[in-house]
Every structure is written in C-alpha cells, then in structure tokens.
# Entry
Amino acid sequence: MSYPSAKAPTLYFIGVTTTQSSIMRVFPEWVRFLGLGDAVIKGMDFPIHADPEAYIKAVAFIKNDPLCMGALVTTHKLDLYDACKDQFEVVDSHAELMTEVSCISKQGDQLVCGAKDPISAGLSIDGFLPDQFFRRSGGALFCMGAGGSAIAITWHLQQELRGRDNPSYMVISDRLQSRLDHIKQYHRRVGVDIPVDYVLIDSAADNDRILANLPPHSFVINATGLGKDTPGSPVSDRADFPEHSVVWDLNYRGELVFLDQALAQQEARSLQVENGWTYFIHGWTQAIAEVFHITIPTIGVEFDRLSEIAASSGKPG
# Structure
C-alpha cells in the first residue's frame, strides 16, 4: 500500500474500523478548542494480525513524511511493535517494558515509540472503581483478552502505590497461546506477586466457566475487541456475572453485546457496569498531547470541557 503525502499536519489513527470511531467527529472540535490550527486526522485500517510488512510500510511513511505528526495505535499495539521496533530511535520506558506501541510521535528527526495505555487505563479505572474495592472485598480480576490493554490494566492494578488495594488473584484468558505467553513473560519481568492464571480458551463457554468460579466483588473486563472490531461477545448469554462486581467493556461503540449482557443482570446481581468511553477520552488526549507537544490536564476545567465536547460531537447514543 502507498500513502499520499499529507497536505496538513496529520495525526494518523492505526486501527481496524477507524471510520466508525467517534474520534473522526471529535478530533476537529478538539483541534479548534486546543488551538491546533489546520491539523487533521486520517485512519489507517489493517486486518487483525496483519502482515508485518504492512506495519513497516505505514511506520516508514509516518517517519518520513514531514507533515505526519504521529499516530495513535489501537488493536495492533503488540504486532506493530514487534514488526517495527527497529524503526524507532526512541522507545519510552512503558513501551520497552510492555513491548507495545500505542502512540507514535516525533522529536525533531527522531521517531518515538510510546505506550500510553498504562496511564490512560489507570486514569479510567481510578475514575470509576470504588475506593479500596479489592482490599475491602477480596475480589479477583478476570480479564478476557491478553493484548496490550490487558498488559496495561494488570500493570496498574498490581502497583504497590495502590496501598494493597490489589486483586486477590487474576485470571487472563485468550484464544491465542502466543498472547498468553507474552503477558506471562511481561508479568515475570516486572515481578508481579499476585497469583495469576493464564487460560487458553476455545469458546465463550470456557469464559462462562471462569465467571462462575469468581468470588463476589470481582472486576470483570472485556478486552477482546469482540463487540467492536469483530462481532459477538467473549461470554455466552448463559453466563452469570459474580454478584456485586464491576463489569467493564473496553468498547464504547459497535454491537456492545458484552455490555448488554452485563446490563441485563445489573439489577439482579448488583453490578456496576462501565463502558469504554472514559478510556477513549484519556487514550486520545494522552496521545494528542504527546504528538502535538502540548499539555492536556487529566482532571479539571480543561479536561472536563474536552469531555463535554467529545460527548456532544461524537458519543454514541
């Protein structure tokens, strides 16, 4: 694939179905609010687990085109890093530790590989998870999907700075053994001392069985992309969520089957159900700040205004 030269300062969005993302409507409004002139956004769509050569060509284009400011990466964070790590002159500490790239930016003539998910995931979780949630209840974490978001989430939840407000144990499931091996290797590198089960699954029924064995007051996450990038849900309609749990679908658009399954049990099982909208806000504002070399606060009047703009111009109903 060849890419036409950018005609204005351009932020690229590397994903799967980028034209369907709210950012395509939100970004122009944010540009006006942030004073970014004639900056634009363009999508680069690739199939999941694309040919490494496709990633290499895309990153080379971003690196060499003078009006390409950088990129935000979703879905392809691990695969792109694996294919393109030698193309970056600078790799930030999170990206090096997690072997993923979620943000590509430039410092002069140097291309920078960044991983913003640990920050944006942490901000999102701390915004909705009840204070001392795990410490008070002894609940577990069950994350379906072992990609970049799962790595970021587990990194945040095992931090000592949380003051022992950590899951009693973690279960990570995925259909790909390579993804499970990757997150397991990462946990070994950083010295995670919380018990973790890495479960290779074949079907939603396997996740159903894990759900059934979780204690009450657990944290259940759909980090698979199912319901957004591809149809379906990681659990079946027969799944029972553990009582008094927090259920988080990282998706905010698409079919949102998993979100609907949790909402259907919300009252009966006393669930707190969250979608991925705040994660979307934090992820994009972190990347925009990095790419355009500006400061965007994570709380306060300016952040609240950015959230309001996004909700009014792009939030799905």
Observations:
- The chain has a mean pLDDT of 95.
- The chain has twelve helices and twelve strands.
- Residues 10-115+278-314 form a domain with the Rossmann fold fold (CATH 3.40.50.10860).
